[in-house]
Amino acid sequence: MTLSILIFLPIAFMILVALLPSSLNHTFKYITLAVSIVQLIIAGFMYTHFNHSLPGVFNEQTFQFVEKHSWINLNLGTLGKLQIQYFLGVDGISIGLLILSAFVMAIAALASWEIKTNEKGYFCLFLLLNAAIMGVFSALDFFLFYIFYELMLLPLYFLIGIWGGARREYASIKFFLYTLLGSVFMLLVIIGLYFSVKDPVTGAHTFDMLSMMNPANYVQGSVFDIHSSTLLFGVSPRLLAFAVLFIAFAIKVPIVPLHTWLPDAHVEAPTPISIILAGVLLKIGGYGIIRICMGIFPDGAIYFSWVIGLIGVVSIIYGAMSALAASDLKRLIAYSSVSHMGFVLLGIASLTVEGISGAMFQMISHGVLSSMLFFLVGVIYNRVHDRDIANFRGLYSQMPTYSVFVFIAFFASLGLPGFSAFIAEAFSLIGAFNSNSIPRWMAVVGAVGILLGAAYFLWTLQRMFFGKTRFKGGEEWQSQLSDVNTREIIALSPMAVVALVLGIMPFLFFDMSNSAMVELVNSTLKSGSLHLETLSKLLN
Amino acid sequence: MKNFVEIIQSSINDTLGSWIYLLPEISLAFIFILMIIADLFWAKRIKNLVAIIAVSGLFIVFLEVIDQFILIPPQGVVLFSAMIKLSTAAIWYKVLITISGLLVLLFSLRDFQLRNTEKGGSEYYSLVLVVTLGLNFMVMAQNLLMIYLSIEFVSVCSYILAAYLTGNKRSEESGMKYALFGAVASAVMLYGMSLLYGFTGTLDITNQAFYNGLASINLMSASVALLLTLAGLFFKISAFPMQVWVPDVYEGAPTPITAFLSVAPKVAGIALLITFIRAVNSGGSPSGSVFLASTENLLAALAIITMTIGNFSALWQTNVKRLMAYSAIGHSGFILMGVAAYSMTGQKAILFFLFVYALANIGAFLVIGYFSNVFHSEELEDYKGMGMKYPLVSVAMVIFLVSLTGLPPTAGFVGKFFIFSAAIEAYMLGGNVLLLIMVVFGVVNTVVSLFYYFKIPLNLYLRKAKTEISLDKGNLLFSVIIIVLALFTLFLGVFPNKLIGLINF
What interactions and quaternary structure are annotated (chain B) (predicted)? Predict the structure, then answer.
């Protein structure tokens, strides 16, 4: 029940907010915040009750907080029955991201104080988005996962489109179209998978992800059967399916040629939505690649590891270069996200326990840090409605407390030892160095990315915070740029603390995920290479 | 001579025995006559009398149609010496047609333009009932003569309905265009049918002789005859190359009629198309029908072209009704996908898709009607900022559009999912790569359709209203129907098995 409560609590309160009269406008943000705090408490409960020794990943018995109910059973077509389940559960891969989501949503709720127009619509959509995010990380049935995955798009479209900046129309539809393009192709793979996989117990075609991960459940001769020699457009269907799923999730991550929606969406979105986008949404891409692409098609993960590594490295470098060139502070942080998420791909491509643990840790760490960075940008933007780096000088003397938070966030993000990002990036790079599947030079180039990261963060620090206080808006800005208030301190402090705690005590996370990572990597390497062997035999 | 008497006897028995299965259609005819009489004698005294008779009559017909599920045996009954066949599938199509008829009648009750036409509304309501009658026959027909008659029946009445707003140039033009295109289409179809009769010597398309006759002649000649016949059906379901009339007619016709035309004749046309595909694929030979590959390829190709034309043309529309017209063409393409896969997978997916399409499409047109009652415009420009002024209706509109695009958690997603599944399943069973290509096109079209559908919420919510004039409150009846439809769309998206579990054949 825990996971269902986590998912449906926001929906229940969304209905409440929708029904309350608009005269209670000012209470909606408190309701939303209360929902997020309750979710955070539930997440804390799950953290303390999570059994670290159970790996999960492939085996339903070792998943925790499992809920499984029959949902849609149909007798459709000639191939047999179709079975869709309401199937939730968490393991070492998803628990960290679930807790992160609850945390980021609470921060975003605090940041939503800046919303002044049409509060009812805003908070309804916000709560709907919240529910969809929780659902994505807990769903273990592919159909259910897809519903939650698509359900996120709609509220985001309106949240960016209605409460966003000047180019909000363009940014919101671009975001929507990019993600949809990836996900509709994903739908085709899902359909192919369910025709290929049968539930061993009921004998019906199933959307159960865990059944899809077991090669024994595939119908003989079906499209995605390992022993099937059919080709789709001249390619092995399994490899093609991996590529399609990878692209769908990689658009979310985002990877470099498909990243252009991200700067636009981030820059135009209101602060809380930027926080959610960077803090949680991008992680869904990484999560999907690890759970679904690797889990279901381990052969593809090995076959394409070189390409994925290359994409990761290109994202790291290209993201960092673009951040160097950015003149808008928010755009700079958006590009730094591209760069940081590149480490996730690099870690995944390494196919080592260190690498993938590093990738997971990077997602958690970046979730916290990018939320903090976007919150910080929001602070000055709310005060003067400007965020061009060139328009600010010597902010330190004007807003000392604020600047301290900025220093923490910047230094943590550029990978200073003692903060979470350092551990995450170090592990990804160690994984890449030790990897058999990707060449060493990728790790070296990735390390150069950290250097570039230091360059743009420090340069920004120097341009905006040091020197003599001088603003484009002059006296007027000087009076508007007051230091952070209590609410902002309440929001910023936990993020700074979490970044520091995770940096000093990374085992808090690693203990939780380690058994899952070991299981994932071992099994992927074993069955993946086995499948590839079968495949190459079949094709020759 | 004795033999002859026996034949006469049996055919009389057959005819007499058939009437009982025609209860809904007979009722429709009676209600129609009743309406004419009521209009003549009491219409002046009792306001809205005709409309009330129409709505309550159609509701009774709806119950009678539902009742037929119990009445017939599972394999269906053949009536009137194989003129029509009442099967479970046909009853489902009739249910769908009657529901859309009912919704459209309710819709028309409060439509501003219809209420203010000089002719008054009485004939209008009677005509909607007559069209429903014709459509009911269309889904049951399986004799070329019956097919032609029912299609013409529907067409002639639809021409009048499309041009009902006399004095309105748009509406007149629309009726004229519809009539001209329709006349050409039915002439072509009639020609095709005459060829079919010549080749096979039978009018009953389910007769084995029909298939044998077609299979024995040159494939080219048979194809020409079939294609010409199908052209008439393509006109009804607005599939390529018979879709050119759609935008003008949809734009010009009264909004309730546009809603009706975009759903009911399409449902009946698809039902007839399936009857046809079945007939030419019912070859008894173990190797399967000679037409299997060619019908599959033809329908797949037409599906691709139809949806691509519809969706891409919709991108540039600024009039909402015109936009919805192109979207309706796009949707015909989607339904054709299901029909192309039909020979392998059956019609459950198609039927479910038609249901959710009908819900969302009628819903969307209701919202258009609602807005056009309030500010008398159907231009996208004028929708700016209306989302904040009419929140409930606008939210419902977004739900309908999301459903039409095919995104969860609405019924449209499940419908599209079933259609894609059917096509992929057919590919797996038959191995026709064109089906797979068709699916890829379907997917790309989904993304394209998002772009133009979301122009409406874009204007409703993302842009500011041009003027701050306070507008009338919308109509309560409309809002209630709209919200009920939207809730249904959501409900079927989350619990599709509540409907599809009922569809058993």
Answer: NDH-1 is composed of 14 different subunits. Subunits NuoA, H, J, K, L, M, N constitute the membrane sector of the complex.
